[in-house]
Amino acid sequence: MIKDFKELPENSRIWVYQSNRKLSDNEVEEISAKTEAFLEQWTAHGKDLDAGFEIKYNRFIVLGLNQENASASGCSIDASVYFIQSLEKEYGLDLLDKMNVTFYNGEFIAHKTLTDFKKMAKARSVSKNTIVFNNLVITKEDYLENWEVPAKDSWHSRFLA
Prior knowledge:
Elements: E1 13-18, H1 25-41, E2 43-44, E3 47-48, E4 50-56, E5 60-66, H2 74-91, E6 100-105, E7 108-113, H3 114-122, E8 131-133, H4 140-146, E9 148-150
Antiparallel strand pairs: 1-5, 2-3, 4-5, 6-7, 8-9
């Protein structure tokens, strides 16, 4: 069962999928419709899941699941990954590679491989104050408070001098 993302409780489970490129407005519209359709039928052990989503900055697909009524099972998590993989294929995206880093470069969002991010850190092209996207957040509360943070407050800090 789909819910407005804003209505999901703060302890909802979150999955953040970052795109290797900015999505066009048309792609966001299409992906939103496909995500709504997926969440409408998303179940765990035959029970509807209370879920919502948002697409941020035409780059991040954020799925949220209220686990108070039913938690995601291994099969339902697999179904969501298969869904994300189908979007990757259809739109030529990379959404599942956790070894990529997104961060603000001025007013723009940059996307780099972890190797390139490390090189940038070594060259001091990014700093401890560079705002990064910490896609390892696991609850909606954590997402709202700790997703866009200075690199010094994220796992990215280990690469900065």
